[in-house]
Amino acid sequence: MSEQALKEIETFVDDVYTAMSRLDIATTAKMLSADLQAADGVTRGWTRGIDEIAEHLANLENSLETEKSRVLDLTVRNWGDTAAATFVVDQEYTISGVRHQVLAPTTMVMRREDGEWKLVLFHSVPLPTQE
């Protein structure tokens, strides 16, 4: 993979988390493919297609009060117009008044559509806290 392709994909991953940290749902939505499938610690299951994702993002916008994410241990693989990124998200957020701090192994699969990377698969489920 070229250094330019690697940097482009790393920037895309960072841009997604920056938009979410700012609670910028409109910008986040522009980075999503219409056939996105996602699983996260909030839904605790799969959300499929842009309509379900839009509903989930709208719910987050109304209930997510603060959010801060750091991407750790990022590794990227690229196969032309498809790429996968694996990493750990260190995240703090307040949702519906309840504060959470989580570490979540995460996978993002991206596809280039009309020259731009779009997220097609997002899987980020927090690990249980160790006592």
TrEMBL record:
It comes from the Bacteria. Pfam families: SnoaL_3 (PF13474). InterPro entries: NTF2-like_dom_sf, SnoaL-like. Keywords: Coiled coil, Isomerase. One of its GO terms (molecular function) is isomerase activity. Residues 9-124 form the SnoaL-like domain. Residues 50-77 form a coiled coil. This is Ketosteroid isomerase-like protein. It comes from Saccharothrix ecbatanensis. The lineage of its organism: Bacteria, Bacillati, Actinomycetota, Actinomycetes, Pseudonocardiales.
